[in-house]
What does this fold into?
Amino acid sequence: MAPRYRLLVLLAAFTGLRFGELASLRRRDVDAENAALMVRRSQAEMQTGALFDKAPKSDAGVRPVAFPTELLPDVKRHLDGFAGAGKDGHVFLGSQGGRLRRSNFRDDWIKARTKAGILADVHFHDLRHTGNTLAASGASLRELMTRMGHSTPRAALIYQHVVSGRDREIADRLGSMIRKTRGDADS
It folds into this structure.
C-alpha cells in the first residue's frame, strides 16, 4: 500500500471503521495517549461530486473506538507526514492534498491488492468485516455493537463470520477460566 494510505488500511482492519468515518477524521479525533479514535461524523459524496460531513447513521455511530497500541508508531508517522495541518486538519488526504475520496483511493487499493496477489474482488469495506470478526474474540455482542456503531444486534451480526480454528480457541479460553477458578493456572 502506498505510504499515504497505509494507516487508512491498518485502521480499517483493526478498528472496523467505515471508509466515510475514516475519511472524515480530524487530528482532534485522534487520542494517541489512549490509542483511540473519536468517531463524530462520516463523509458522504453527492452525485455531483461534492463532499460533506454528516452525522453517523444512528446515535450509536458517535463513539470512541480503541485501536491496538502497536499502531501508535504508524499513527505518529502518518500525522507527521500526511495529515492536514492544525487540530481540524483531516487525518487522511488524497495524493494532491485535497479531501480523500473513494475515487482517488481506488487505484491505489487495486494496485496494492494486485501486488499482494489478491486476485479476488476484495473491497475496502471487506476490512470492516475483518476488523469486526477479529474484535469478536472474547467480546460480547453489546460490546461489538458499540464498537461498530450499530444500534441493533441484526446489523452487528452481519459482520460476524466463522473463523477456522476458532472453536478450539474458545474451548482453550474456557479451560483457562476453569484452571484459574481452581487455582491451578500455572500448571
Residues 6 and 74 are 8 Å apart (CA to CA). The helical segments are 3-15, 19-23, 72-81, 102-115, 126-135, 141-148, 153-157, 166-182.
